C-alpha cells in the first residue's frame, strides 16, 4: 500500500488557506507567532516549510475566537488530511 506523500506548505499556501498576507506571515515568523518550520529546504536560499497538520492546528488556535468562515473551511481542509497525520 502506497502512503500519500505528506503535504508541505510554504508561505503562499498558508496565505491562501488562512487569508493572511505573505508579508504578514513572514513578519509573524520573525516574531515567533508562527510555529517553527517542520523543514527548511536548502536549495539556494533556505525556505521554511510546514506540515499541513502543523498549520492546521496553529490556524485552529488562531481562529478559535474569531467569527467568520475560516473555521468551517479549516474543518473541511482538516478532514482531507491523511489518516494518522495528527501525530505531534
The end-to-end span amounts to 23 Å
The mean pLDDT is 82
CATH topology: Multidrug-efflux Transporter Regulator, Chain: A, Domain 2
Shape: globular
SSE-based structural type? alpha+beta
CATH architecture: Orthogonal Bundle
Structural notes for this entry:
The longest helix is centred in the middle third of the chain and has 12 residues, at 52-63. The protein has one domain: Orthogonal Bundle (Multidrug-efflux Transporter Regulator, Chain: A, Domain 2). Helix 3 (52-63) packs antiparallel against helix 4. It has a three-stranded antiparallel beta sheet. The protein is an alpha+beta fold. The two termini are 23 Å apart. It has four helices and three strands. The model has no long low-confidence stretch (mean pLDDT 82).
Keywords:
88 residues, alpha+beta, Multidrug-efflux Transporter Regulator, Chain: A, Domain 2, three-stranded antiparallel sheet
Amino acid at each position: 500500500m502506497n502512503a500519500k506523500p505528506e503535504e508541505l506548505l510554504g508561505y503562499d499556501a498558508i496565505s491562501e488557506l488562512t487569508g493572511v498576507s505573505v508579508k504578514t506571515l513572514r513578519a509573524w515568523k520573525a516574531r515567533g507567532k508562527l510555529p517553527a518550520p517542520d523543514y527548511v529546504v536548502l536549495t539556494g536560499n533556505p525556505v521554511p516549510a510546514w506540515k499541513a497538520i502543523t498549520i492546521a492546528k496553529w490556524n485552529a488556535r488562531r481562529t478559535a475566537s474569531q467569527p467568520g468562515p475560516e473555521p468551517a473551511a479549516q474543518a473541511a481542509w482538516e478532514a482531507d488530511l491523511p489518516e494518522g497525520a495528527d501525530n505531534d
